[in-house]
Write a structure and sequence with these properties.
alpha/beta; 7 strands; 7 helices; 210 residues
């Protein structure tokens, strides 16, 4: 085989590999009428948790997410950006912690998300408790809503599954948190039901479980 032919094959293989990686990185289409799949509400002290969650949603599930430090326009009033992010996102995830309850910004964003959900009834808000903060610190409107608890050992086994269900996504077949799952189609939306969960979990609550 000539050097020219070999070089050509290498280039073709490299191009195919690049196209395959690009296809895998392509974002899933955002539901109509929205700019983002998910807006993440969090306190900056919980940025490690947020970044792990962001990687899980964007790199593994190809979702388009909104977070303030990269998606907000510099110089624009915070309250305007907060309201736009809440209203332009299909789902909102709030990272609830002992840090977040001290933040006026977090409280304001959460109030906006609650107001949207109550007015539209669109089941758009989920709260993930990431430390030992008391659930009583949540606004009363949320205590019977979608709460995902990573502090409770029994709930920590299935938190990722609950999150995927909230986001209307099928459970990953390679997700170590669940096995023997079935995917059902309900009114055109993919839903997931699982029958057996892995019994192992980590006791390190300081490490994001993603």
């Amino acid at each position: 085989m000539s050097i020219g032919t070999l070089t050509g094959l290498v280039l073709v293989v490299g191009l195919l590999a690049y196209m395959l990686r690009s296809k895998r990185r392509k974002k899933a289409p955002v539901p109509s009428d929205y700019k983002y799949h998910v807006f993440i509400i969090y306190n900056n002290e919980d940025r490690l948790w947020m970044k792990k969650l962001l990687t899980f949603l964007e790199d593994k599930h190809n979702l388009k997410c909104c977070v303030h430090y990269r998606n907000w326009i510099v110089g624009r009033p915070f309250r305007d950006s907060m309201a736009e992010s809440v209203n332009n996102s299909y789902k909102i995830i709030a990272l609830f912690s002992s840090n977040s309850i001290k933040s006026n910004y977090f409280s304001y964003e959460l109030d906006l998300a609650i107001d949207r959900q109550e007015k539209s009834g669109d089941h758009s808000l989920a709260v993930i408790r990431i430390d030992g903060v008391n659930f009583k610190e949540l606004p009363s409107e949320l205590r019977n809503k979608t709460l995902i608890d990573c502090k409770d050992p029994s709930q920590r086994l299935i938190w990722k599954t609950k999150l995927l269900e909230f986001l209307d996504l099928p459970l990953d077949s390679d997700n170590n948190n669940a096995e023997d799952y079935q995917v059902n189609i309900n009114n055109g939306v993919t839903r997931t039901r699982f029958s057996r969960l892995d019994s192992t979990t980590s006791n390190d609550l300081q490490t994001p479980l993603i």
